[in-house]
Amino acid sequence: MIFYSKFYIPRLKRSFFIAKNENGVCYIDLGDNEKRFLKKLDEYIGDEAVNKTAELGYEIAQIKDYFAGKRRNFDMKIYLKGSSYRLAVWQALAQTGYCETVSYSELAKRAGNKNAFRAAATSCAVNPVPIIIPCHRVIAKDGSIGGFGGGIEMKKIMLQIERENA
């Protein structure tokens, strides 16, 4: 069984969906379309999903604290499902420090294959728990902002929050 909830981030003026199963947070969708979220969640986990905000209060509070500049690290269990290389990339991302940025090639190196920077970029693009696994901290090698599933503006705001609270 998966519990999910929609929550609102005032600084971004937008809502997101979060889901967790018995193993931890398993999915965060940076959009606010419930049908699309449930379809993606089903494709990723394939279990019954129930809207139950009370089950996610602890996790939502931490994410809201992050966006308010009151939290630098997350203290919650997560559940990831993917290939061994994707898991290595997500682990390397999780170890990327607050206010630290890395290039896709550096991330690939940290994940164990310095030549797999395209695969590292794809792993970022399909990161099931953005914000918690900080794919917003990955930038292009030339220093440009690069892409982000929540959009460039959201990525800029997240990096700005981290600079302001470092």
Describe the secondary-structure layout.
Blueprint: E1 2-9, E2 14-21, E3 24-29, H1 34-44, E4 49-51, H2 57-67, H3 84-94, E5 102-103, H4 104-110, H5 117-125, E6 138-139, H6 152-164
Parallel strand pairs: 1-4, 5-6
Antiparallel strand pairs: 1-2, 2-3
Helix pairs in contact: 3-5, 4-5
Structure description:
This protein has 166 residues and is an alpha/beta fold. It folds into two domains: 2-67, Double Stranded RNA Binding Domain; 84-164, Winged helix-like DNA-binding domain superfamily/Winged helix DNA-binding domain (Arc Repressor Mutant, subunit A), CATH 1.10.10. The protein has six helices and six strands; from the N terminus they run E-E-E-H-E-H-H-E-H-H-E-H. It has helices at 34-44, 57-67, 84-94, 104-110, 117-125, 152-164, and strands spanning 2-9, 14-21, 24-29, 49-51, 102-103, 138-139. A hairpin with a 2-residue loop joins strand 2 and strand 3 (24-29). The protein is globular and about 40 Å long. The N and C termini lie far apart (38 Å). The mean pLDDT is 95.
